[in-house]
Amino acid sequence: MYKELPLISLQRMPVYLNYLKGMPATEKFVSSGHIAEALGLGEVLVRKDLAFTAAVGRPRVGYVREELISAIEEFLCYNGKRHAVIVGYGAVGKAILDYGGFGYYGIEIVAAFDSDSEKLGVSQSGKPIYDINEAKSQIERLGAKLAIICVPAKYAQPVADLLVESGVKAILSFAPTTLKTPEGVEVRQIDVAANLAILSSSIK
Amino acid sequence: MYKELPLISLQRMPVYLNYLKGMPATEKFVSSGHIAEALGLGEVLVRKDLAFTAAVGRPRVGYVREELISAIEEFLCYNGKRHAVIVGYGAVGKAILDYGGFGYYGIEIVAAFDSDSEKLGVSQSGKPIYDINEAKSQIERLGAKLAIICVPAKYAQPVADLLVESGVKAILSFAPTTLKTPEGVEVRQIDVAANLAILSSSIK
Prior knowledge:
homodimer, alpha/beta, 7-stranded mixed sheet, two-stranded antiparallel sheet, 8 helices, 9 strands, 41% helix, 18% strand, elongated
């Protein structure tokens, strides 16, 4: 999916969705120029992004707003929902497990795992937290190819190894450490502290 | 601070720190080649990064490990601790307020703000959660120029405006929406869902 789509365009899709959904219901049409101006983007860029969806703009009036919303949503969920799991049900894992924003991208977080037996059970939004020992069997059962690592840095590599063994093909890690995975298993790291440090360095 | 330092080098500093601190205590020396190999980086790149610190490598043996650790730590905290505040004490705000990893970069999260009176008080690690109405006075008092927005997307822009009014110069936002700020106020967005979507799109 998204074969030809630049990552940065993909990242803008929910931004468009948010904006379009936030417009007054009375606005039937919306042009790429209007979207571009509202979001501070170039018009050509917006038009190129939206061309990845099935939406068709009309000369002079632009897109029918509701059609454009549906087209972006369809585009993002094109292949049906992908299942993802979380390892580490601490503060970060908790925040992510119950966050609803993944649906925009056709992703559903279906379960979390932890090694602390006191954390096991069901989350606020009704999602299961399983024992880490069940990870392999549950991940296989759930068909999850996506996983999010929310454990402390020192546990991140063994967790990544376990995930790879369980058939996971892509890992998002919040652990501030470099993970080694075999070829064919993609890893992205979100380093909140590093992002803040970069901002800090921008202050005169 | 970090005037000439590329952002990506800054981002690697804590990775080096983590690696160096994790080495067996018996390893007195460490070479840039060794670090490069362990972290899957180029040796020239590692040497260039470390040259931003005050550490001096010795021919053949490399750096004294403890000296290099101190040099990186000193480098990151060169200008003393910077204060940062959080707005929105939901699951994400909570996770960040009590996360200890910012110290690596010379940043201290000193307070959070929320509009829900039931959330006000003191966090697990002893940090204050103030009423959002106190934000301007407290941010000025604390001298915080850095802020992290952890509120839902629809509240993010008014919160950003309030932060700018309070003297904040750089904002890290977890809200999946584009923020407008005046010139001189830097914004970075961490979009967890978009990152996961990008990974998802990499799965064959």
